[in-house]
Amino acid sequence: MILRMHSVHFDATQKLLDYVQKKVDKLDTFHDRIVDGEVVMRLEKSHLNKKEVFGNKTVELKINIPGQQLFVKDSSNTFESAADLVVDRMSRQLKRNKEKRQVRKVNLDANGL
Fold first, then answer.
1. From CA 7, how far away is CA 69, in angstroms rounded?
2. How does strand 36-45 pair with strand 2-8?
3. Which residues pair with 43 in a beta bridge?
4. 15-66 residue pLDDT tens
5. Beta bridge partners of 36
6. CA-based nearest residue to 45, from 73, 19, 75
7. Is the pTM of this model over 0.90?
8. Where are the beta strands (DSSP E) in 1-113?
9. Which residues contact 106 (CB under 8 A, 6 or more apart)?
């Protein structure tokens, strides 16, 4: 899968980029028509402290499939765990989307269309 990765407010290491790429590539097993994707990793400033220390690590994942764009966003203490959460949520969305597509196809075939 073609995957564009962006890091906002920090420079991502190659190890982190490889980890995210490996995780997102596993989504191909859940949906066979994924066109491409985009990952945005960013450090969010914590507004709880007056020092404005960097805290939450947010990962956003956008997947393009024919006729739709699926989006998931999650935060955690590390980028690796946020990536795991995002990939899990996206896999559920892809499974749901594929099931709906199959049900529609069965209904259309049953109606003779």
1. 21
2. parallel
3. 57
4. 999 999 999 999 999 988 899 999 999 998 765 554 444 458 999 999 999 9
5. 2, 64
6. 75
7. no
8. 2-8, 36-45, 54-65, 68-76
9. none
Contact by Cβ (8 Å): 81, 62: no
d(CA 5, CA 20): 9
**Nearest-angstrom CA–CA distance, 14 and 23:** 14
Pick the CATH number of 2-110 from 3.40.50.620, 3.90.1150.10, 3.30.160.100, 3.40.50.1220: 3.30.160.100
Q: What is the CA radius of gyration of the chain?
A: 17
Q: How far apart (Å, rounded) are the C-alpha atoms in residues 67 and 101?
A: 12
Question: Is the pLDDT higher at 104 or at 112?
Answer: 104
